[in-house]
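[Discussion] Sanity-checking designs against the backbone

I'm trying to build intuition for which residues belong where. Below is a structure token string of 265 positions. I'd appreciate it if someone posts a full sequence so I can compare it with mine line by line.
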């Protein structure tokens, strides 16, 4: 939706889509930016209830608001996935697909875990509320299985071959485990990172096939890919115990997604 369109006007189309595609939805919650004539329009045109979630009278500091917090919380879950931390996509359909992948990942992990998620140490929200800077003790840091700097060097060694094969490589991204506050931001500048816990590689071809690999120093990798509308998903990763194992995994993924092979000099 264009920034020149008010929220109340722009909301009519998605509300109509929701009415047509999900007829069982009888009630929609929205924040105060959607109050006014949109509430009347929803009731008269769509025969649905649009409830505005308002702040408590006299509220001055942050407070979790019923229903609205579920949306903000879900957005936080989504942006925890590297592919959604930046707007990499050229087409809205690609962005929608990545959002679906991310939520599938969230749901599968919950089902496999079988219990509510827990985070060691004080919560980020509590740290902000009481003015305490969040720190992570050495006993809570990710285990060091793979040297990420050596992994980045292996990536750099392959870039000439990728370029010769017509692949476009985005700058390698880093995340600093020691950075505060949480969640830590990504950067392409290694010099700004004190204690990296992961490194990301993003490749794409001229026909819009894409590969995103995130290697964590704990010895595992997240691998997402898009070849076309019928061939997209996640490539399972074995335990990565060395840089050599990561390099072999990366080469195999590139062959799988882009259909090319190459020699590293």
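Best answer:
Here's mine. Compare freely.
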């Amino acid at each position: 939706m264009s920034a020149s369109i008010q929220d109340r006007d722009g909301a009519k189309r998605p509300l109509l889509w929701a009415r047509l595609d999900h007829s069982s939805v009888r009630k929609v919650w929205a924040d105060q930016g959607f109050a006014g004539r949109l509430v009347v329009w929803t009731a008269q045109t769509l025969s649905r209830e649009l409830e505005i979630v308002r702040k408590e009278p006299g509220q001055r500091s942050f407070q979790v608001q019923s229903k609205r917090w579920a949306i903000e919380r879900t957005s936080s879950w989504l942006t925890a996935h590297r592919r959604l931390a930046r707007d990499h996509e050229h087409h809205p359909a690609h962005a929608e697909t990545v959002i679906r992948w991310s939520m599938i990942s969230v749901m599968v992990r919950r089902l496999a875990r079988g219990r509510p998620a827990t985070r060691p140490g004080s919560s980020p929200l509590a740290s902000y509320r009481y003015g305490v800077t969040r720190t992570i003790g050495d006993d809570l840091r990710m285990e060091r299985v793979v040297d990420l700097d050596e992994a980045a060097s292996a990536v750099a060694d392959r870039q000439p071959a990728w370029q010769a094969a017509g692949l476009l490589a985005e700058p390698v991204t880093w995340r600093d485990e020691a950075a505060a506050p949480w969640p830590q931001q990504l950067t392409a500048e290694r010099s700004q990172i004190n204690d990296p816990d992961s490194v990301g590689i993003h490749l794409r071809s001229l026909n819009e096939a894409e590969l995103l690999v995130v290697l964590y120093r704990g010895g595992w990798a997240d691998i997402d890919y898009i070849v076309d509308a019928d061939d997209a998903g996640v490539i399972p990763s074995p335990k990565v115990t060395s840089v050599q194992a990561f390099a072999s995994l990366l080469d195999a993924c590139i062959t799988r997604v882009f259909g090319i092979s190459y020699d590293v000099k």
